[in-house]
Amino acid sequence: MSPNIVPAGVFDVSGNEKDSIVITGWVVDRVLDPAKVERAWATVVQTWPLLGARLRKNKTTSAWEYHLYSSFSPSRHRYGFKHTHKDGPIDDHYAYARPTDSMTLTVKDNNDALFSDGGPRSVTQRMSEDIPITFLQVTTFADASIIGLTTPHVLCDGHGNKEIGIALARILKGETVAPLPEGDPLAKYVETGKTSNLEPPPSWRVFGLIDSAKFFATLAWDFAVNRDIENRELFVPTAEAERIKQQAMDDLRKEHGDAEDIWISTSDALVAFCLQNIHGPTTSTTPLNVLYSANLRRYLSDVLPRPYLHNGACTVITPTLPLSAISSMSLGALALHIRRTVSEQTARPAVEHWLRWRLANAGRLTLFFEPTGAWNGFTNWRDMKLMEIDFSGALPENEEGPAKCVYLWGMSFQPFPVRNFMGLVADDPRGGIWIGGFLSKRVWEREDGFGRFIRRASREQAT
Hints:
By secondary structure, the chain is α+β, with helices and mostly antiparallel strands.
């Protein structure tokens, strides 16, 4: 039977993130019933058939599309699911980070087989195999469980994974979920033939031949010097987050006085704090731009229907600063630099202009920094509240909740290694904020930077 073909969204295929595979994982403090989870997952896929589609490229146009089938067989599965059991407690198999009383930096244990054993690791694999584009795995232990969700980034972003997780939790509780809306709500922002008439958003540029050559030469040098990129995570206790925010506010009062109405968020202060720990004191005038992702669902709420699985991350770019400014500015001044950028570039006209420009330049090399410049990227998932999804509906019969998420894990697989990137991952319901990142070992362990929190972790473990 011929499949029903649904084109991938215009925004979904417009960026390089479409080539990534994303895994989101929840470590739950109870032993769940995998059969219950599988039945609920089957219902989610039945309600949202797109989750069971096959990802393909059109043989004529090379356009990305989803193939949806109405009939299935042992060789053509409607949904992807796997249950794995490990004997003994979870600590025998997985060293996940725990909250601490002080700021603590740890190397992330990326045991992806516990979250997606046999799941896809590349978009090419997804396009060549007759398997559903999404995959759910439950791993059970004697005292805990893991739920791992694997999706291609071309289908959805982190917020989309949250929508899928919430749908699964609701079905487990006997509730229903609404069907996915049809159509592509962002297609109206495509302006065919007007590419040259659109001014680039702040700091964005299309790289020509010379700029591209400079960029790739700089990138090759960076790869050669900083090969030891490590994925680590920083736990910031509530008291420390409040202290960092207060320090930033105190800086602003000193620099601007009490009369001026100035506001920054805790997230602004934490991003500034991370930047100052990444970039130590220097006299370098190398230009630096910082990418900070925002959520189209918030700024185009009347355009994007709910539930909306697909990609919705727009980007704001800080005005160029020399590297030396990161350490010479106060924490508050740097946080305000970030806040003003976010406020200006998330105004409705700015967001819509950025969206039109990105869609008009899909497939071209577009970057937000100078060819030989420095850059950092930040995402902020705090408002997703991913650790608050309640999977208690998956407990065995005659057992009652709660089933709490005690650790949130994430990993992505893409053609090029992630670097220079950090994310405010989640607020822990027990208190504190989790921050993750991909930086060189040298940066992570610098004595006057993040290295301070490695030593503190060692002392705590020793006691």
